Sequence to fold (367 residues):
Amino acid sequence: MKAALHAKIGSPLVIETGIEISGPKEGQILIKTEYCGICHSDLSVMESLDLTPMILGHEAAGIVEAVGKDVASVSVGDSVLMSPIGPCGSCVMCENKRHTLCERGQSFVFGTFPDGTTPFSLNGSPVYQGLGVGGFAEYTVLEERNVVRIENGLPLETLCLLGCGVQTGLGSVLNTAKVTPGSTVLVMGLGGVGLSIVQGARIAQAEKIIVSDPVEDRRSKATQLGATNTIDPTSSDLLGEIFELTDGAGVDFSFDAVGNSDLIAMGLAANKSGGLTVIVGAPPPEEELKLPSALHLMMTEKRLIGSLLGSCDAQKDIPAFVEYWKNGSLDLESMISHKYTLDEVNSGFDALKESSGVRSVIKIHEK
Ligand SMILES: [Zn+2]
Ligand SMILES: [Zn+2]
Fold:
């Protein structure tokens, strides 16, 4: 089958037609992948992870082709979304409802199933399954817990965004931060995750949603999706404007959707006493925090928290997010700016690097 391979650090993906796939084994599902969004974490892996060859793409949707022994939640022909982290439901973390910290769920970092195997191979050698999904391939095999069944007939080219970017953004608001009605929110960075945070804040009935991004198009997209105030951080005193917009009070919640220590520090500075700053974007591995003084944090009771995949339980949250889309409170269509075929996947990464548009979606099969 055909797939786009991460073959060398810092290089574009390579289209390879000789990939073999095995499975599904017990508890696994073989999926014909239909669509996969391009997420910034794919680019981070291409630029920094020397675990090759690897099939990236982790924001995917498709149709069940075959199920392994003991799979009960889906049948052949079902429409499914795929999630990079699937909670096992029975470890200590899952029992404490910390599903993204599931002891069996984080093998995605290593590109294999928890037992160290991968479903993909090329000329007899293993090919890693990047970020737990392997969505830039015509078929993939996932464990049942990473696969979420949705109603058949819904548009997979739209709903695939729920796999990572939207799950991360909405979840960071609703699960990690638990934004409250009437609160003030700051969102820094307006890619797919940042715009999902904006929509989450609107759904959570935040009163003021202030957004900051250097790209004008993205700021106007944020306004369309629920932002109440926009700031261009390149041409204005960001912190000064935030305090002006909040009558000198600062914000209740600030979100860094980029993964940048300057923005995290900005979030802490912009918070009210008792406010919460959430790290949602994935920072580079070497990025260190720049914190205010310990006394300042002690006196203000400001809080700083990380959010991995929106602290979501994919099996419970993805169906809830599909309902938001169905009832019109979640706009996914406006977030898709580019569509490409699998052969054109590197054009999608070029768009991402140039901050052109918001999200690119790859159509995996030609026909
Ligand atoms: Zn992602
Ligand atoms: Zn678990």
